[in-house]
Amino acid sequence: MTVVSNNPSWWPIINSIIFFGYWIVAAGVVVVCDWVLTLGQEIELIWRQRWSFMTVLYLVIRYIGILYSVMNAMPYMTMVSLTDAVSNIIYYSLNMTSVVVTAMLDVIMIARLHAMYQRSRIMLIFLVVIFLAVNVTCGVIAVLALKHIVAEELILSGAHICGVEGDVQLLLSMIWMLNAVWEVLTLCLSVWIAVKHFRDLRRPGPSTGSTIGDCFTVLIKSHVLYFASFAGVSCLQFSSLSPSLLNSNYMEAEILYGVLEILLSVKLFVLGPRLVLVIREYHVTLVANSDAEISMKSMVFQENVQISTSSSSTV
Question: What is the pTM of this model?
Answer without folding.
Answer: 0.83
